[in-house]
């Protein structure tokens, strides 16, 4: 008896689920972390023993997310090599982690200076012979105001912002990638922001610098996947850091009150996302941005916006982070009922009509 043909509706839904897997796939990068490359086979295993003896390089780890991530990796048995501009804080963090039994080295470096970044990376390579994971976290918020109002020069001015958030990431990858290509393995995570994906009337310069991080990440991922290197970015939401406090005018009172969880993230919670991205089982997560902002996007219902734009996303609820195939897809208002909700546990009824998939996102052929 012949098999019953699949309906166009089912084909669309199944294709969307397949694309979700591709989104987490990215490329065929191995993502192995040298001595930390042992594969975990139990899907919910919570220990991090697979990071034991991995060499982890971190920029900007004298406080906040960088410091928390350094502590987590050191606690898992990794060898942590980190830098920061504040020498006293760097030494304090180093001593504290060592007192907790971790192996860690603080190295003074200013990511705004290429020679300092080169020396920092070289020192790590000279010490341990390899770099398995690089977390390029150093960043500042820069000037507040419109583009016709902000300060261009001086500390926290526009040029200082670009030197730190953009040049600092370029310099870091410029010297990390050759080390990883030589060993044919490695993971790089660059820190973006929720403002990597939208604009801001008062923090536009910061948003521009973080948009650049996403572009650099995707561009570096393409040619290096064949060398066993995964390059990704992480965009945290509101997190309890000095940077957020400055964003909010000096106080975190009320921060996160309007978010689904009713609070902001702790730095350690973002650090755990970093570790999840570096998991040896995540070999096919590459070249894209992971949003760590706790906003649910599993698409049970998306309200159509007045401009006829909808969101299309891919969510991995088990790993507690999500990979966005496309932040927004424009659909003609007359056809705005066509939604492509990817990896939705309860897909809505889709109209039985033609919806072609193109590139990384579901795009209506009229676009």
Can you walk through the features of this model?
The chain is of the alpha/beta class and 367 residues long. It has two domains: 8-21 and 302-362, no CATH class; 27-287, NAD(P)-binding Rossmann-like Domain (Rossmann fold). The chain has eight helices and eleven strands. The chain has a nine-stranded mixed β-sheet, sandwiched between helices. A two-stranded antiparallel sheet has the order 10-11. Helix 6 (204-224) links the parallel strand 5 and strand 6 (229-236). Helix 2 (64-75) packs across helix 8 (267-277) and helix 5 packs parallel to helix 6 (204-224). The chain is globular, with a radius of gyration of 21 Å. The protein starts with 7 loop residues before the first helix and ends in a 5-residue tail after the last strand. The model is unreliable at 1-45 and 298-367 (pLDDT under 50). It comes from Natronogracilivirga saccharolytica. Belongs to the short-chain dehydrogenases/reductases (SDR) family.
């Amino acid at each position: 008896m012949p098999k019953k043909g699949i309906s166009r509706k089912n084909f669309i839904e199944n294709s969307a689920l397949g694309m979700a897997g591709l989104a987490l796939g990215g490329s065929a990068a191995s993502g192995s972390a040298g001595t930390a490359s042992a594969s975990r086979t139990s899907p919910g295993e919570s220990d991090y023993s697979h990071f034991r003896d991995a060499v982890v390089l971190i920029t900007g780890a004298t406080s906040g997310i960088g410091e928390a991530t350094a502590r987590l990796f050191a606690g898992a048995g990794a060898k942590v090599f980190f830098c920061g501009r504040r020498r006293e804080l760097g030494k304090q963090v180093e001593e504290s982690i060592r007192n907790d039994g971790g192996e860690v080295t603080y190295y003074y470096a200013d990511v705004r200076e290429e020679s300092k970044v080169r020396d920092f990376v070289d020192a790590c390579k000279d010490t341990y012979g390899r770099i398995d994971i690089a977390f390029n976290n150093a960043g500042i918020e820069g000037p507040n105001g419109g583009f016709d109002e902000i300060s261009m020069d001086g500390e926290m001015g526009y040029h200082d912002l670009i030197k730190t958030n953009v040049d600092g990431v370029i310099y870091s990858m410029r010297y990390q990638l050759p080390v990883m290509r030589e060993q044919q393995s490695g993971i790089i995570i660059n820190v973006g922001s929720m403002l990597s994906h939208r604009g801001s009337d008062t923090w536009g310069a910061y948003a521009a610098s973080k948009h650049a991080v996403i572009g650099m990440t995707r561009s570096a991922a393409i040619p290096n996947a064949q060398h066993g290197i995964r390059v990704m970015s992480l965009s945290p939401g509101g997190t309890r850091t000095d940077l957020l406090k400055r964003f909010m005018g000096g106080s975190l009172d009320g921060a996160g009150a309007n978010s689904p969880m009713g609070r902001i993230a702790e730095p350690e919670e973002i650090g755990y996302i970093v570790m999840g991205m570096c998991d040896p089982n995540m070999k096919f997560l590459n070249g894209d941005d992971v949003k760590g902002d706790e906003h649910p996007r599993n698409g049970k219902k998306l309200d159509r916006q007045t401009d006829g734009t909808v969101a299309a996303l891919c969510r991995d609820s088990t790993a507690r982070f999500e990979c966005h195939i496309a932040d927004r897809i424009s659909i003609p208002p007359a056809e705005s009922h066509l939604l492509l909700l990817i990896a939705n546990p309860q897909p809505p009824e889709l109209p039985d009509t033609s919806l072609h998939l193109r590139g990384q996102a579901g795009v209506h052929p009229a676009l």
